[in-house]
Amino acid sequence: MAKVIEGLYYAESHEYVRVEGEYGYIGITDYAQDQLGNVVYVDMPEVDDEVTAGEEFGAVESVKAASDLFSPVSGTVVEVNEALEDEPELINKDAFENWIIKVQLSDKSELDNLMDAQAYEAICK
Amino acid sequence: MSDKRTCLYERHIRQGAKMVSFGGFEMPIQYTDIADEHIAVRTACGVFDVSHMGEVLVTGREAERFVQHIFTNDISGAPVGKIFYGMMLHPNGGTIDDLLVYKEGDERFFLVINAANIDKDFAWISEQVKAFDAVAENQSDYYGQLAVQGPKAEAVVEKVLGLPCQELVFYTFKKMDVGGEVIIVSRTGYTGEDGFEIYASHGLIQQMWDKLMESGEAKPCGLGCRDTLRFEVGLPLYGDELTDELSPLEAGLGMFVKMDKEEFVGKEALAQLKAEGLKRKIVGIELEGRAIPRHGYEVVADDKVIGTVTTGYNSISTGKSVCMALLDIDYAKLDTPVQVRIHKKLQPGVVIKKRFYDKNYKK
Hints:
The structure holds 2 protein chains of 2 kinds. Chain A is of the alpha+beta class. In chain A, 18% of the residues lie in helices and 33% in strands. Chain B folds into 3 domains: 9-53 and 141-232, 2-Layer Sandwich (Gyrase A, domain 2); 55-138, Aminomethyltransferase beta-barrel domains (Alpha-Beta Plaits), CATH 3.30.70; 279-352, Aminomethyltransferase beta-barrel domains (Elongation Factor Tu (Ef-tu), domain 3, Beta Barrel), CATH 2.40.30. The termini of chain B are far apart.
C-alpha cells in the first residue's frame, strides 16, 4: 500500500507540494514511484526557470519509459535536488523525502485546486 | 483487433507479470524489475516466453532454391542442422523482416519470423513460392517457444529439462523426441549470451515452463529485458533498426547479405545502393550525461537534424546512456560529435560502434 502524507498538497498527475512559507517542494508521490518502478534518470529544470501550474517541467524515467512531470503550482525554481543527478533511485527509497524542485510560489491560491491527503488516497485505490 | 495470447498467458498473470501489447500479442514486459531480469541473464540464467514468434515450414523439391530466392544469406551447401540469420527484402531493398532459417533437410526448411510481421511475411512467402516446386505452411499457431539464456543456460536445459544440448554448437539445432513429440532445440538467442531456443507444442512448452519455475534455476524474464539485452550487444529489432524503408546495408548488417549469391529479391537494389554509396547508416552514440535517448528522438549536429534515435537506454550493464541511431552518412564516422534532443535540451555525445557490451557466445 502506497504511503500518503498528511499536510501535503496533491495533484491528480501524482505530484505533491510541501509548502514551507513562500516556498513549495515538488516531487512525485510514493504511489507514482511504485507505479514507475526503478527510477534511472530525473530530468530537471534549472534554477531561475519558471514553472506553471499544470504544465510539464521535467521527467522521471524508468529503464523502459519517460514520464513527464507536471507542476502542481506556478513559480520560480530556486533549487533543484542535485542528489538525484547521481542517485535517481533515491526517489524509490523515499519519494516524499527526496523532492525534485523547490519553487518560490507565485500564487498561493493555486493550492486550493489541489487535493489533500485523504482525497488523494481515494484516487490511488 | 484484440491481442492474441500465448500458451503461457495464464502463468504470466499468476506470476504477477506486467503485460503489454507487442506484435499483436499480450506479452509480459517484466515480472519483477527489468534490471534484475537483465542481470540474471548476463550472470546466470533467464527464461523468456517467445511463443509470439512466427514459424513457417517450407518443403519441396525446390525448397532450397526458393529460400535462396527470398533470403539474403547463402544457405547453399549447408549441412542439416545448420541455422542462418538474414533478411527478406522488398525488390526495392527495404526489409520485409529479419529471420532465422533452420535447415531440417535438403528439401525442408524452418523459418522463424517476427510476431508483428507474421501476416505480412506469410503473404509475401505464399506469393513468391508459387513460382517454385515447394510449399510453405504457417505453423505459428502450433508452436510455443521458450528462450533459455545466460551463462548457466546449458546446465539448466540439461538438468532441469533433461534435453541433451551440450554438443550443440552456436547456430545449430537438433530435433529431439520428448514423450513421442518431436521438438526443436537450437543454440541461438537474442541476448548476446549463450543460450537455447526450444520450439514445441503448447502443452510441452507449458510443462517445460513449470519445470523451470519449480527448479528456481531460471528467472522468468519479460520483453523489457529482452530489449535491453539485445540492444547492448547491437542486435537489431525489426521496427527500430530494420524497416520496410531501410535496407540491411544501412542497418550495418551487410555480413548477412551475400551479394555474390546468384540471385535474391532485392539484390539489384542493394547493388545500386552500394554503387551510389550509402546515404545513411545506423550507428552507436554514447552520451556524456545520464539523460536517456529514446526511439524517435532527434539527433542534431551543425544546428540541423541529421538523424533519429532507433533504440536507446541507460545501459544496465555499463551505466552509460547510449543509443543506436540512423544518421546521415556525413555524420556516421566514429568519433563524430553529435547531440541528441532529450526533453527539449541538446545532450552532447559521440558516434561509437553500435556494440555497447561484448557478446558472450559459446562457439
